[in-house]
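Lay summary

Proteins are chains of building blocks that fold into shapes. Our project writes down both the chain and a compact code for its shape. Here are two examples, one after the other.
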Amino acid sequence: MSGAEKGELLHVRVEDVKIPRWKATGSRTYYCKIMVALLLLILVLQHALSVFARTPRIARQVAGVPQYVLDYAPLVWLDIGEEYFPSDMYAQVTNTHPEINLTSIADPPAPLTLHNLHVLNDYGNDGMNVYLTSNMDVTEGPKWLDGVVPDSRGKTKRAISCAIIVNDHGSGNLDTFYMYFYAYNLGNTVLGRELGDHIGDWEHNMIRFEDGVPQAIWYSQHANGQAFTYKAVEKEGLRPITYSAVGSHANYAIVGAHDHAIPDLNLPVGFLLDFTSQGTLWDPTLSTYFYNYQAETGSFESVNGSPLGAMHFKGKWGDQQYPDSDPKQPPPFFGFRKFVGGPSGPWDKQLNRTNVCPETGIPCIVRDILGP
């Protein structure tokens, strides 16, 4: 029987003992290596999650809407400094009341909804003199003007902030308007003065398709805009990218500074500057109404129950310009005002165009390279 079996002590050499790695290298060094590895793992996971969150989902299917209208729908980068986000159209109705010449309409139809909003066309020059006027003093910053920040999917939750309008010209030719709604437009700052603010803001892209293939895209910018070939513009997969200017929400094909004093030319310096950047990605198709436009009658056809009153309403989606005597209106600045009148709706955006550009008297240039 060996000594070990007799219970005698074994003599173990030091070199035969397996020393734990953390002792062999020093506990501090070992733990530092572990922490570095964990930090690297966290960074990798954060990047992967951020890429996943920003990756646009495959376009959904909507009965009655050509699939390519959704497959090629623009994605909108809101500026990193944006404070007035896409807004719910119905919230604009519930937070306003109709006025004509700064006077409330007596006993208006109630309750007003997006389905019956067109009843206001019975007032004031077929509705065109009607203004949806804020129930609250806008200079006090009511929260409804802030809109809704898109979530990680790019969706404005509980806010329908887009209208997609299809005008089928026949013979494979089809125009699709992607109309974006904001409750507030922040004007440009010129020599320290903020000018051109207004309640309500409609901007849009239009894509011209031939046999389901996108040919060109229009970017609305203030009183005019720009057009590019589909091949020229930046894309995420199939979907073209639009950059929404901070505050004004004018649409541009590139990031940076954009002077819009000269129509159809956006230089990076000037007095009337818009700014665009990759702040928050918005996918308007996730919260939208759908319509077909009948050019012969100038009317809309609802798709899947989308409210028709909002499209047929011919009034303005915000306050009338405040008079100079109104304490909300600062003194004029070389004839320009801080607060101007609200905009008309989609019906007034030349939905039956010959060219990709609307008819404004300015030549329609469809650029095949990105630039100013």
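And here is the second example, written the same way.
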Amino acid sequence: MSIYEMEVTTNRGERRQLSEYKGKVLLVVNTATKCGFAPQFKGLQRLYETYGDQGFVVLGFPSNQFANQEPGDDAQIAEACELNHGVSFPLHAKIDVKGPDADPLFVYLTREAPGFLGSRNIKWNFTKFLIDRRGRVVKRFAPTVTPEKIESRVRALL
């Protein structure tokens, strides 16, 4: 299986194939607007604006699985992201990123890039997965790793 075989739902309810992003460098992030790491939205947006014309895309996937830090519906989440953080990168429908109902994308990502001590679980909001232009998951970043600390890795893949 490849990431390009995955289908996701946008925050407007439209189904999309990740194959639309073939040839681009992707940063897939599980997000939550009420999380203490929410200030990272600004850094993610800055990366998206800085490197977007070079083939870089941030894909945000809201989840409410961690301390109920994403309680809103998809429209409320999109509004909060835009108004509070200036987000214009693609946001998707709220999903589960762990457990029995985990979205297939996150099952795939955690299998390809396990976390600390080989864990396949997402531990918290703002876990990030960097994917190269060939669709390979090259690195998983913990929630505490800021977008600024990832920038050199993004540049190297571009």
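What can we say about the second shape? The domain at 3-157 is CATH 3.40.30.10 (Glutaredoxin).
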